């Protein structure tokens, strides 16, 4: 029998307390380490066997045993013991039993401590990962206040309840600038048991953060009177939140805005001045879509294809740019919020279409017999020649897709343009910006 150094034994208990791991789990890890150390030590003495270790939970004393099976005839001396010899040690021993034979550990103390420390580090890490996973798996979607601990190239390391969490740069807002020790609000988005980096992943761009902030700021949402039906964000820039009241006497939009905008302004400040449109939800798609285009005012909403969920919205001429928004952002967020593909048209465009259909006006693009097939693409090239990446081949594909000139691109979204072969997101945005500049936006 030997005793593990008191300092080591105390450190085992201290680690268990600091890491929030049950002491028994740590002791089991140490016993496993001691068994491995014994196996290595005795194997070096040409004694092979199946070793087990036991540590006293109060004193730190440990014992090592060689496990041998009781058999009628011994074939492997290191693993078996004869029934006669076993009964000399334990009269009640029977064939098939396993005897635990104490081993001399007088020379095993330092080796055992070193091996125990190595395995202990690994076992503590595994146990801590399991504890973190168990603790945080049920907290996904929860908004927490985290402290900034340090900065890495691609992430910010935070601390939540003594556990490190990772805020990737891509999950931070564009205007986020933090100092070490600063406390910030984040939403827990995932927990990865196998991750080498901190297991807990958090975000400030996830829509769930905005939803939880509203729950915290608006009592009517917290108590269930007002319900958030959907929320979409282009984080750090703009968001739309659809709200519905279960009480006809409670205005859901007013409740979220608060007196003089106090409630929503608190959320806007937290999200670095992200613009937030609070939209009144409706079960009637046409009304919901009209509301979602706020701050633009729709004249009429016409469902064109219910199966494809396509809808046309007509607005006043001066409202067209507002309905579309910068780089198509307003109509894009409205489409995501409602789940409908929205085509925004001005009243002048619809009037022009009606006149052409009735033969009262010529179409914008003359269909002269001598016009070449390349004429529409040439029109687009001449109007938007300065756009980097727009060439004759892409202009031809745009024309074939129904975009023969700058005017035809006025109400288009980046997602629609990206369906054209050869178009990427950056080029789509450049085209949209160029069209708005072309028409004096």
From TrEMBL:
Gene3D superfamilies: 3.30.300.20, 5' to 3' exonuclease, C-terminal subdomain, Nucleic acid-binding proteins, NusA, N-terminal domain. SMART domains: KH, S1. Keywords: Cytoplasm, RNA-binding, Transcription, Transcription antitermination, Transcription regulation, Transcription termination. It is found in: Cytoplasm. InterPro entries: DNA_repair_Rad51/TF_NusA_a-hlx (IPR010995), KH_dom (IPR004087), KH_dom-like_a/b (IPR015946), KH_NusA_2nd (IPR058582), KH_sf_prok-type (IPR009019), NA-bd_OB-fold (IPR012340), NusA_N_sf (IPR036555), S1_domain (IPR003029). The keyword Ubl conjugation does not apply. Residues 141-205 form the S1 motif domain. NCBIfam families: NusA. Belongs to the NusA family. Monomer. Binds directly to the core enzyme of the DNA-dependent RNA polymerase and to nascent RNA. Participates in both transcription termination and antitermination. This is Transcription termination/antitermination protein NusA. It comes from Geothrix rubra. The gene is nusA.
